[in-house]
Amino acid sequence: MLRRRRAPLLLAAAAGAALAATSATSPSADGLGVASTLHGVARSSRAIYTIGFVTMDYKYSLRGLLPGSADYRGKLSEVHLRSAKKLLRLCEANRGFYVKAGQFVSSLRQVPKEYISTLSCLQDQATPCKYQDIKIVIEQNLGKDLHGIFLEFDEHPIAAASIAQVHRGRLNNNQEVAVKVQYPGLERRMKLDIMTMSLLSKYVSLIFPDYRFEKILLEFERTMSMELDFTQEAKNSERTASCFRKNDVVKVPHVFWELTTKEVLTMEFCTGHKVDDLDFLRKADISPTKVAKALIELFGEMIFIHGFVHGDPHPGNILVSPRGQGRFSLVLLDHGIYKELDPKFRLDYCKLWKALISLDVQKILELGEQFGVGKYAKYFPLIFTGRTIDSKSALGTQISGEEKTRIKQDLNSLGMDDISSFMESLPPDFLVILRTDGLLRSILGNLGAPRHVRLLAYAKCAIYGHEEQSRLGSAPAAGEVWQMGLQEGGHARLKGTCSWIQQIVQLDGWTLVLLSLC
Questions:
Q1: Would the keyword Iron be found if you checked this record's keyword annotation (predicted)?
Q2: How is residue 331 annotated by DSSP?
Q3: What residues have CB less than 8 Å from 250, skipping those under 6 apart?
Q4: CA angle 468, 474, 477 (to 5 degrees)
Q5: Residue 150, φ and ψ in degrees, nearest 5
Q6: Which residues of 35-51 are buried (b: 16+ CB within 10 A; e: fewer)?
Q7: Which of 41, 275, 437, 481 gets the highest tally of CB atoms within 10 A of its CB?
Q8: What is the DSSP secondary structure assignment for residue 337, as one 8-state letter?
Q9: Of 277, 312, 348, 437, which is the active-site residue?
Q10: Residues forming beta bridges with residue 250, ordered by sequence position
Q11: pLDDT tens by residue, 296-319
Q12: pLDDT tens per residue, range 30-45
């Protein structure tokens, strides 16, 4: 009874907080301030209504059904889809950080498939801000007249997303630049949206005590706060450029620090096409599989070796720039969201992948305890490699029909409380890994890359990252140290200092032999 009484009070608190937050930062006499306040209340009210409806839909639609039964599973899927569509409409109506939140959720492979398929259509696009408002932001931040800074400046943005838009310009020395400008008043709006989401998360937890999403929300808030500081983005960009300075495939735009502040970022202008633009790749005679291989090795090195990970690798942030004769560069953009992995976590994650490749059940379960996921560790092989923990199938091959049936039965027994418990028990670093890996797998799928491309790249990186941990800070590009030759139907020898047991892994008709090099 107390829980039922507290829920409406919490909804009322959310509405009151929305009004207070916008009023406190906007002068009431100012027409713009009033408009901002009303807009903030409308956005929060829309969110409160939607989440309230979704929560009640779950509560009453599943009432009286036996968890795990066919009726329960069927009805649960219906509610998932109905709720996902409502959240999609909410994100499309509120735009901004709600779109970011929807994209964040859809990139987590652990949420129900109905949410992934529905929310994955969200595009991080926005109606461009008026040129005069952008001009004011630039001049206030750089302390000069815009025409005194740029020889040319295109008034029409080449891209507009939820937090900023990008303009093409030319400096007085004829250097072409891309100028990223943050929308006015964005930080205030973010605080309000996060406050509303936090209160609604608490409301859901009151109705469903087993549903806990605080960690996901905290991770989302952390990433958004980072993304709003363009000086941090510039630092991330330079650090990544340093990590891959010996890799001639990776290109990171140069930052012009004298024209960069918290709200304005000026970078070298780089040309290219989205990494999964297959029509462009065909016309440029560039192999999609080679692009996929270069991409996954780039992120494998980030994760397993450098422990400094780009957290938003969607196709718009990775460009392919042709260099002739089928060669190309990968241009890495938007360095606002990064995660520096805890050294122990990075090492344990390397160990996990070694265990996944060899299907060392005991080690997987042991690492699951260290990661804090307990009984859910048995799903690690399924999440990362597509086979069960007791699989008899070779890595990278199709699993048997019997295994598929067993997986389906096992997953059908899981409820939303299991998913919630699993997500809440994961270390923050793991959430970033899961999201990044989900986005990368989607790109690889669009490129039509064989499954073994990702598995092989991760296996190599994990082995090297584990064995060479002492050289983490100054490790050369992975391609220089692995020196792997891989031939179809043949063998590959990993040249390094790894002291791993011999493993023979079948990868879609390819044989990878990881030899003991003691």
A1: no
A2: E
A3: 244, 298, 329, 330, 332
A4: 80
A5: -115, 135
A6: ebbeebbebbbbbbebb
A7: 275
A8: -
A9: 312
A10: 330
A11: 999 999 999 999 999 889 898 999
A12: 444 556 667 777 888 8
